[in-house]
Amino acid sequence: MKGLLDFILADSTKAELLRKQLIFKIVPMLNPDGVIVGNYRCSLTGRDLNRQYQSSIKEAFPTAWYLKNLITR
User: Fold this and answer.
1) By percentage, how much of the chain surpasses pLDDT 70?
2) Which of 28, 34, 57, 69 has the least C-beta neighbours within 10 A?
3) Is residue 49 within 8 Å of residue 43, measured between CB atoms?
């Protein structure tokens, strides 16, 4: 991730062209509560957040719901 950020924020012509043509929406981590206990894909409730984007329910999976809405804007 650091390499990507360094590249797109650099003063190079390629990075400048990308910034002009694209909108970058960078999300650092959706699952901090699960990661803190060693679950890299699952939340504290044991649900795999990577599988909740098709039918995410705001109350049950708020991180997936908000990310989906951010991306679709």
Assistant:
1) 92
2) 28
3) yes
